[in-house]
Amino acid sequence: MATVKELIKKESNGSISFGNYDLPEKKKLADFEVAGDLYKVKTWNEMTKLERNGTFVYESIPGTAVNVFKETADEVTFFVEGTGQTQITLELESNKEYSVFVDDKDLGVSKTDVGGKITFDVDLQKGSMTVVKVVAA
Fold first, then answer.
1. What CATH number matches the domain at 8-136, 2.60.220, 3.40.50, 3.30.1050, 1.10.150?
2. C-alpha span between 96 and 28 (Å, rounded)
3. pTM of model > 0.85
4. CA torsion 10→82→128→41, rounded to 10°?
5. Which residues contact 118 (CB under 8 A, 6 or more apart)?
6. pLDDT of the residue at 104
7. 105 vs 62: CA distance, rounded Å
8. Distance in angstroms (rounded) separating the CA atoms of residues 51 and 61
9. 46, pLDDT greater than 70
10. With contact defined as beta carbons under 8 Å apart, do 127 and 81 qualify?
11. What superkingdom heads the lineage (predicted)?
12. Quick check: 1 pLDDT over 60?
């Protein structure tokens, strides 16, 4: 697993992988269909962003590669690779508390804002996958 050369792809387990932080210029892919949903990805070394049906899902600054991204009603899990200090923003249910885990380290409980966004920082290393799990508290 690493950068996604296709920008976004469906995995055999129904999850998706997206993003390529090695790109020097912005690349986009829209209308990628998975289970009836349409995804749009925008990625390059400065940012990776994912939308589903026109709604924000994920953003990282700088760009990342996200593998096996899976979202349920109460949990989001994925592997992420990038370079250095990275800010990740997810859109979840608004005004709800979530526990954030990075490589099994508990970052504590955070409450989403009115728009449902939660933001946290991770320290990433090129060539090394970091496990992220966000669970409804």
1. 2.60.220
2. 31
3. yes
4. 0
5. 89, 90, 92, 98, 100, 110, 111, 112, 134
6. 85
7. 22
8. 15
9. yes
10. yes
11. Bacteria
12. no
> Are 57 and 80 in contact, with CB atoms under 8 Å apart?
no
d(CA 134, CA 80): 13
Tokens of 134: 């966000």
For residue 120, the Cα-to-chain-centroid distance in whole angstroms is: 12
3-class SS of residue 31: strand
Amino acid present at 25: E
Domain ranges of the chain: 8-136
Own/partner contacts of 31-35, CB < 8 Å, gap of 24 or more, are 32/8, 34/10
What distance in Å separates the CA atoms of residue 126 and residue 117, rounded to the nearest whole number? 26
80's enclosing H/E stretch is strand 75-81
Sign of CA dihedral 96, 98, 118, 11: negative
**What is the DSSP-derived secondary structure letter of residue 21?**
T
Question: In the prediction, which pLDDT does 2 show?
Answer: 63
4 pLDDT exceeds 90?
Answer: no
